[in-house]
Amino acid sequence: MNTTRVLRLAGVSVVLAAAACSDTSDTGTGPNFAPAPPPVGLVCDFNAMKSSAGAYLGKPNAADALITTMKKQYGLASMASATDTGFDILALVATAHRTGTAVGTAVAGSKLTNDVIGCMTLTPAVTAPIDFSGSLGPSGAYEVRGGSADANAANVLTKDSKAVIAPPAGGFVGFVDTRVLFYSTPKTNTFLTELKVGTTGHSWNTIPERHDFNGTGTVAMCVAATDRDRIQEVDADGAKVLPLTPITDFSTLGLVCPTTVGAAPTGLFDRLAHLVKSVVMPTPAYAAAFGGGTGGLLGGLSDFGVVDVATVNLAIDSVMDSRTTETIPSFRVVATAGQGSLLPGVQVTIAVAGNQGSWTLGGTKTVTTDTLGVAVFDDLNLDKAGGYLFSATSSYTGFQTATVKLSNMFWIKQ
Q1: Whole-angstrom distance, CA of residue 158 vs CA of residue 210
Q2: Which residues of 250-261 are buried (b: 16+ CB within 10 A; e: fewer)?
Q3: 3-class SS letters over 357-407
Q4: C-beta separation of 30 from 72 below 8 A
């Protein structure tokens, strides 16, 4: 998951520069030109690409003809066609991974992917190899979306169907605006800052890296926990818990979760904690949201895992003095989990706590925290002069006991 809501992706080295071609093949009819000095670590070599295709896809394979086509397109006035053909080759890698028809190892598939990327024009450019072997493994995800030939509405699933990204209602084309390789690698969830659920999270990434999305998609993961669990997102900007969105039928997402997991009590179904830019059992279902741009340290999305939000904390800005004829100056209430993660989706209600008179509190008294855990109160007013305290009270799915926080004392003048 992109800020680079950037992802802590171990072992990834990315340098912004243009890849150059060092193809020495004597086959095909590619144009002769003088390439720029190649960057260290990732170069365009069609011979190596064809060898890698044979190692991962077997021989003969459908990629060979595409590689020949890509070589002819490479170096022409526009590299758009060569890049599009490169995505066609990556789509063949995705199909082989999804269907189990690859003859080579995940490492061989990673090598092929890097060989192809080295001959594509991407913004930002990728000039150092990326390890895709986890994404091409039994619990990884690797799919191309966004092109006219790509599955527009098909969700991006890990091969074990335990985690997923789903597009908005319009599909991936409008979501990404260009062809994108989505890939996910499972990782130990030590990156989580709240109470961890399970042991594994996922790093969701894209090529091109740090890709911006349009609208809100959905990500889900299989877990077994209580209705307090949420998806936590961790990126270079910090940690936050994602808002909940109800989902009534998790099977539509393609996830396959056992009816019990680990030490779950008898009769407790697996839930899917998700995120959406959404845990699913028959009932209830919870989800969370991501959107408005990618996150992550380098990969375009962020690191996501499931946490148990055991505590809701509230913090209130100072409330300023005002008059009976005026609106009280805007102030915020920020909701966080026990270890400081921002909490969206918390209903915060303001009430008068420190004055027993016959006042009337007008304006919008209940506001739901946004994706950054902030509720803004900007239209409150009191009709009687005096000294007051506000109380802020939380209401949050999964919590029977509300959190109450008092403000500073402030004064209303006539």
Answers
A1: 20
A2: beebebebeeeb
A3: CCCCEECCCEEECCCCCEEEECCCEECCCEEECEEEEEECCCCCCCCEEEC
A4: yes
pLDDT in tens, 49-69: 999 999 999 999 999 999 999
CATH 2.10.50.10 corresponds to the domain 313-413: no
pLDDT tens per residue, range 311-354: 899 999 999 999 999 999 999 999 999 899 888 889 999 999 98
User: Which residues, other chains included, contact 381 with Cβ-Cβ below 8 Å and sequence gap of 6+?
Assistant: 322, 324, 326, 327, 328, 361, 362, 363
The C-alpha atoms of residue 95 and residue 103 are separated, in whole angstroms, by: 12
DSSP H helical ranges for 150-278: 172-176
Element (H, E) at 342: none
**Six-digit token string for 174:** 């409008």
**DSSP per position, 283-298:** SSB----EESS--SBS
Alpha helices in 33-79 (DSSP H): 46-57, 63-73
Predicted confidence at residue 57, as pLDDT, reads: 98
Can you give the pLDDT at residue 357?
A: 83
Answer yes or no: are the C-beta atoms of 292 and 317 closer than 8 Å: no
CA angle 369, 319, 383 (to 5 degrees): 100
Q: Are 281 and 270 in contact (CB under 8 A)?
A: yes
| 255, 270 contact by CB (below 8 A) | no
- For residue 335, list its beta bridge partners: 314
For residue 244, what pLDDT band results from cuts at 50, 70 and 90?
low
Residue 263, number of CB atoms within 10 A of its CB: 7
Distance CA 340, CA 239 (A): 8
For the chain, the structural domain boundaries read: 17-123, 132-309, 313-413
Kindly indicate the confidence band of residue 355, based on its pLDDT and cuts at 50, 70 and 90: confident
Instruction: Tell me phi and psi for residue 399, to 5 degrees.
Output: -115, 125
Give Cα 169 to chain centroid, integer Å: 17
Contact status, residue 341 vs residue 256, Cβ threshold 8 Å: no
